[in-house]
Amino acid sequence: MTQMKIRNLDDLRKLRESSRDLSSARSGGETVIIVGMGTCGIAAGAREILSEVMAELARRNIGDVAVQTTGCIGMCQDEPLLDVIRGGQRVTYGRVKPEDVPTIIAEHVVNGRVVEKMAIGRAD
């Protein structure tokens, strides 16, 4: 995904629509991945994270994972944020880089093991 410069409100609307197109491509499944796509998340690189999540799931041929986006949750200092909900537990990963996504998907989504060194919060 290429970087888009936001110069005005119309650019922001176009970015929102393109993000919706990406996130709506995946739905269903017991496991859910949520990427924070508030303006703070986007500024920190969340578009690249969302794109890498979609690409990694496709590479692994994983079709039973829902991918969603959310707005700002007030943890701007830890953006980009990626949550994995699996087995009734929600784990938040912070300051995620695109190169972290394959590890999170392999360890947590596929094998059910939380990547402790990247996890910044959890809820049961």
Strand order of the largest sheet: 2-1-3-4-5
Shape: globular
Q: Which ranges are low-confidence, i.e. pLDDT below 50, for 5 or more consecutive residues?
A: none
**Tally of separate domains:** 1
N-C termini distance: 34 Å
Assembly context of the chains: single chain
* SS summary, helix count: 4
Mean pLDDT: 88
Radius of gyration: 14 Å
The biggest sheet amounts to: 5 strands, mixed
State the name of the first-level CATH class.
Alpha Beta
Strand portion: 15-25%
- Report helical residue fraction: 25-40%
What pattern of helices and strands is seen along the backbone? HEHHEEEHE
What is the β-strand count? Answer: 5
- What is the annotated CATH architecture? 3-Layer(aba) Sandwich
- Give the helix/strand class: alpha+beta
- The CATH topology, please? Glutaredoxin
CATH superfamily: Glutaredoxin
